[in-house]
Sequence to fold (684 residues):
Amino acid sequence: MPPSRIRPAKKKVKIMAKVEFFEERCKGCGICVETCPKNCLVLSQRFNRQGYPVAECVRVEDCTGCALCAEMCPDVVIEVWK
Amino acid sequence: MKQVFKRPRSLIDVPMHFCPGCHHGIIHRLVAEALDRFDLREDTIGVASVGCSVFMYDYFDVDVLEAPHGRAAAVATGVKRARPSNFVFTYQGDGDLAAIGTAEVIHAANRGERLTVVFVNNTTYGMTGGQMAPTTLIGQTTTTSPYGRSAEEAGHPILMSEIMSQLGGVAYSARVSVHDPKHLMKAKKALDKAFEVQIKNVGFGFVEFLSACPTNWKMPPLKAKKHVQDVMIPIFPLGVFKDATAGLES
Amino acid sequence: MSKRKLVNGNEAIGMGALDAGCRFYFGYPITPQNQIPEFMAAQLPKVGGVFLQAESEIASINMLMGAAATGVRVMTSSSSPGISLKQEGISYMAGSEIPGVIVNMSRSGPGLGGIAPSQGDYFQATRGGGHGDYRTLVLAPHSVQENYDLTIHAFDLADKYRNPVVVLGDAILGQIKEPVALNPPGTVKTSEKEWALTGCRDRKARLLKSLYLSDGELTDHNWRLFAKYERMKDDVMCEIAGIDHAELIVVAFGSVARIVKTSIEMAREAGLRVGLIRPITLFPFPAKALRDAARNTRRFLTIELNTGQMVEDVRLSLLGEADVDFYGKPPGSIPTPDELFKEIKQSLERKV
Fold:
């Protein structure tokens, strides 16, 4: 499973939680992006083989592992660690 | 770090055919999570219906029997009467349950069959291209109500959860939605109850899920999600209409 | 010598079901078969079985499919209009290869018709009746004893072929009372079904469906089913009587065959050489028996309580090798032996 893109933190911040996206299953619906209470997720400019723009986590340092993105994803794209 | 969210065991690891933003995927996963939570996968016999839900057997890792359109509740009755110790559920859309299958679901419920029925209401016939459903809202445009549904010609949207709650054999009837996390968590609890009333041999369990159909509503996924909240819920009130689980031992 | 009991025709079918190990019945009341659900309602609870009066014939065929999918023996019964309602369910059972026994005690049609006996459901029973390329085995009793025996046989055939089986009776066969020799207890033979849905403990999940969308999948599936229907010819059954040196062979099934038998006796007493071929399986049809008989007899007379259904199969079987006359009596009145004797004589005269 391809890992999400991790932007190097500017300060030495401990990563509390992370999400992984099974990008080939993403349909670019955007529900996870709207759901994330910390606005960590965006719809990227990359397309998977199905032609959908894939969602991704752009600020993993803000992720609290609430897993609401995964709960709302209709395609079981996201796995969450805390 | 430990994993706090992953695919439930009862949900097969394959891509799902649903459109982007369709809530069927969420509801399927919730049902699979409940099957895992109650450790039912190996004792379950699912009854598949006809509609976008028809491929249920590709997604749930349980024994499945395909029923004719509308007949899932009758087929499930036969299954459960023959195998009372198995967990038997149906998963039906608004055409399957509220149009062609209304007699079957009402009578199965009235008899108090120990079944759990998952009813997905998206106010349209999705699989066949967006025709009017018994749950279509007044004024809603569909391919068979191109001028908007008129109450004089086509009646009013049917409120199944309320109807079910009036039947003696029903032990649990609720309407929920999965359009945001708060409502999704409530939906999980409702599903648990609908499972519980079968497991504890109390009666018929029924959960109506309000769901989005972005493709046939001709809306993008996020707008469709909002449509559930702003337009559907006022007509299809959320809530528990019957609950016989009070006082049951866990 | 086995004990014989005076039994109502409909009840004999119920007894056959029980003695075949059937413990599940789903049905809906309709004249003239109500003794079947009433008998099952009284008897099934005594043997730990399940009787359920469904809300319609549609619901009951679907309940039958659901229960049968778990591997148990199940029966439903109805009469003509109710059997029309069951056609979709029967098609699904054939497509999903789920066994079951469907009893049709025919009444008169079309539409609401009447409650008099008829044989107007022959096409419906033997041609599939529902949509798609499929067949059901069809057994046609002509006595209360056969009601009992053929019902038991129906369950065995259903399991053997994983197919729905129709028992085609009529209002006469449902209402008459005759002595029946019952099987001794414990003659049931059922087997484990490796396709049955029981919950996927310690095995892969199973699926019973009839939907095949991939390119070529449904083609293959239909040819497989077709091959199965061809194999059913192994179980063809018919009664053959007095065809040696016969100048005329009457072909009749079900209750009309009883009246025909009397007419044939009258013909024989008058010195006429008349034989009988009585199909017992209507599908598979005893085509070979007819063709073999046609080597020595060049005239056949088909008699049925309809405007001409089985006669098509008789003509198809003989393919012009013999002349086929037809005498039909659509429902509403039952022919007398004299009436049929007259037809037999006329048929023989046509020969000259």
About this structure: Chain C is about 40% helix and 20% strand. Chain C has a mean pLDDT of 96. Chain C touches chain B at residues 24, 26, 50, 52, 54-56, 58-60, 62-70, 72, 74, 88-89, 92, 96, 197-202, 205-211 (CB under 8 Å). The two ends of chain C are 48 Å apart (CA to CA).
